[in-house]
Amino acid sequence: MTRLLALDTSAESCSAALWCNGEVTGTCEHAPRQQSRRLMPMIDELLASSGVTLSSLDAIAYGHGPGSFTGIRIAAGTAQGLAWGIERPLLGISTLETLALQAYLSSGAELVLPALDARMGELYSALYRVREGRPEVLLDERVHPPEELILPPLNDGDVLHGIGSGWKLAQQLPKAVRSRACEVEADREPDASAMVRLAATRLEAGNFKAIAYAIPVYLRDQVTTR
């Protein structure tokens, strides 16, 4: 039986989720600036309620970014510490890819543009086409001003599903982007319950890092207080 733990603190939420042989159990709470205090108790409560011990896990996954610089470091440090303690593989998962899967799981969206507010007048964004629950990258992750988002050539019938806090700046996006968006969920944040599904696929494929390489993905060098 494959067992995975995923955790994310890349935005204002704090979430953890378990994958037990295809079944997902997760917990998420709004905890701005409280993630470092809430994450471990949340993990302990999730494991206890599921009857799973830390040592029985096959791997640990975490949201490696982009997102809040402080939050990403909390998740990476916690995941690395847990993985080191039980000598298990570590999987870093994109928060933008996680949002793309969340859109697919909640509404069946196939063409998804996740965007997160990067502060300093910029967005973190990417573009995915989700096929059978597997996001395929159409535009790589990058940080940029909203007005500089340019879509690749798309089919005439393609419509966008926008998700993430970056869509609160929708009026600053180019008209060509806004006109494609059929649905927008600007209040959604990355959730470990979707992240753990991506992690299970990576683990099955053997796509994971050695414990020493829990590296946050910031997409830019400047750090702002989050």
TrEMBL record:
Annotated localization: Cytoplasm
Provenance organism: Kushneria phosphatilytica
Keyword Transferase attached: yes
Gene Ontology biological process terms, A to Z: tRNA threonylcarbamoyladenosine modification
Domain of life: Bacteria
Designated name of the protein: tRNA threonylcarbamoyladenosine biosynthesis protein TsaB
UniProt keyword annotation of Glycoprotein present: no
Any Pfam family: TsaD
Signal peptide location: none
GO molecular function: transferase activity
GO cellular component: cytosol
UniProt entry keywords in alphabetical sequence: Cytoplasm, Transferase, tRNA processing
Family: Belongs to the KAE1 / TsaD family. TsaB subfamily.
